Every structure is written in C-alpha cells, then in structure tokens.
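Following up on my earlier message about coenzyme A. Here are the inputs again, as you asked, copied directly from the submission form:
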Amino acid sequence: MTLRVRRLEPGDDRSAFRCGNPDLDRFVAQYAGQNQFRHHLGTTYVAVEGYVIAGFATMTASEILPAAMPTKSKKRLPRHPLPVLRLARLAVDEQARGQGVGGALMLATFAVARQMADNLGCIGILVDAKPEAVAFYRRFGFEAVDIVAGLLGDRPQPLPMFIELAQF
Ligand SMILES: CC(C)(COP(=O)(O)OP(=O)(O)OC[C@H]1O[C@@H](n2cnc3c(N)ncnc32)[C@H](O)[C@@H]1OP(=O)(O)O)[C@@H](O)C(=O)NCCC(=O)NCCS
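Thanks, got it. Here's what our run produced:
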C-alpha cells in the first residue's frame, strides 16, 4: 500500500497510534483534532497507508530572533522576530519505523514551509528536538540554535534546532 501525507481529517481514527511516547500518543488521539478544527492552533499532517495513521507531524506558525540563527545570512536580516514554521510534534508508529515515514513527513514539512514563505513569509523551520531525535534532524540539515527553551522541570531537555529555507 502506498504512503500518502495529507492534513488530518475529522473522521481519522487516531486511537490506535502508538509511538512509544505516551504524551505524543495522547496528543494525536485527544488534542490534535480540537487544536486544528476548533482552536486553529496548528495543523497536523498525517502519513497514511489506507486508513492507518503511520505517523504525524504537527506544525504551527512561530518566530525566531535572527541572533539565534546558526547561519551567516542572519547578518542580512532585520533584528526583530522573524516568521518561521515550528514543527511542534513529529512521531512515527513503532510498527512503521525505519520505512521512510519520518522522512516523508519531513519532506512534507519542507513543502508546507515553502508554501508559508510564498503566502505570508517564512525563513525556515524550528523544532525542539528530543535528545533521541537530534541525529535524525541533523541528517536533514537542522543545526542547534541558542534559544533558552524555558523551565522544563526534570524532563529531558529538548534541543532547539533550525534549518533555513534556502537549505531545503
Ligand atoms: C525520529 C522518528 C520520527 C524517525 O521516523 P522513521 O520513520 O523511523 O524515520 P525514517 O525511516 O523516515 O528515516 C529517515 C532517515 O533518518 C534516519 N533516522 C531515523 N531515525 C533516526 C534517529 N533517531 N537518529 C538518526 N537517524 C535516524 C534513517 O536511518 C533514515 O536514513 P536513510 O534514509 O539514510 O536510511 C521516529 O523514530 C519516532 O517517531 N521517534 C519517537 C518520537 C520522536 O522522537 N519524535 C521526534 C520528536 S522531536
């Protein structure tokens, strides 16, 4: 069966999704829909095989200060906060790992960022990478940035990472 990435639809069954992280499973099952359809906080894209959700990526509009960007091009940019796409969550079902689903969601995220750039402005993609996913994002060209992510208690510290539009 072929893999397709599209926006989450209200009728999608999200209850069986299991990525090994209960917070991400709960998010897609309980909150992704209302965040998208009722509150318009962000949009979830799902990678589907038939009716089965193999993975999802949730995105929202955000901002970055040029000083936090890792690239030389920041010198050409104004010093106020600039528009970015924030990849808020990304997860692949445990049964679908290692088969290109995460990569397909990453390419879909690049495509949405390009549309955002055309439609309203977007200089790149920001993600708070979980420690175990840092190498995955580096593989796609993301670099660590200097943003203090806030107080997270004793949870593992995510690493803010960024990729500039010109690099994808
Ligand atoms: C990280 C995650 C999304 C990767 O999804 P996936 O579908 O297994 O990834 P893919 O099969 O598309 O892999 C794409 C490429 O990245 C590589 N890759 C996958 N996971 C990786 C990791 N954790 N570290 C480094 N490289 C990784 C693959 O080897 C592959 O490389 P190749 O094209 O040279 O073979 C998935 O493991 C996951 O959902 N993890 C749990 C939730 C999580 O950590 N989400 C990130 C939150 S910030």
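One observation from looking it over: DSSP finds three helices and seven strands in the chain. Hope that helps, and feel free to reply on this thread.
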